[in-house]
Amino acid sequence: MRHSLDSKGQRKGRVIDYRVSELRVVELLDGLCEKMQDYTLEKVDSTGGRWIKVHDWDSLTTNRQEARAYSKDISSYCGRLLEEIEDELADLIKKGSVRTGNVSKVLCQDLGKHCNKASDPHQVDVNDHRLSHGEL
Hints:
Mean pLDDT: 79
Number of strands: 5
Distance between the termini: 39 Å
Radius of gyration: 19 Å
C-alpha cells in the first residue's frame, strides 16, 4: 500500500507489506470478540469445563440459557482483555511474533497474565467465582 497520490496522479510514499500493516491488525481484531459469542462453556465434570464452539444453538443438549450466559461472559471478557492489551498485541502481530497455534498463549499468558502457565487455556474451573461475576 502507498500513502498518497502526487499532482500527476502517481502514487508516492513507501510500500507497506500487508503482513505488518495496520490494516491487517485492524482486520484481524475487528469483530474478534463478537465471534466469541459462538462459544460456550461445556461442563466436563462437577469441577471443570472447556470452551466449545457452538454450531447450532438449537441442538445444544445443555441448558441453553446458561450456555448463552457463558457465551456473553466470554465475549464481554474478550472485549475487556482486548482493551487492556490491544496496543501490545498489535505490535506483536506487526512484528510477526504471533503465530498460528500460539495465539492462546500470547493472549492468556504473555500479554493478559490471566492464566497459569501450566494450565490449558481452553480448560476452566467451573467453580471459579469469576464465571458467575462475568469476569472469566
